[in-house]
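Can anyone check this?
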Amino acid sequence: MNPALSNDEILEQLKTLEKDHPTHRVFNHCMVVRLSLEGYTQREIAKIVGCNPSTVNQILKRFREQGVEGLVPIKQQGRPHFLSSDKENGTMSSLRTI
């Protein structure tokens, strides 16, 4: 986070972020930062948002380290596919003929 930014500038960046990434998760992350700027404690924020205080702590830590961009969740890598796409297509076509 850029320490030279005022609360108004941060709030404006949060509004822009919500428009660019209209997901429930980003909205909650922005709300956590807003409530923190208003002076709420992490426990109070957790109750309002409906999450664990450690989650609030993680969100605020990412915000301090990365700024507004840190509030956008990183796409999680999942488990690799069991079948290659060729084998999957072959299996699906075999099943359709049954």
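Reply from J.R.: I decoded it. Residues 7-71 form one domain.
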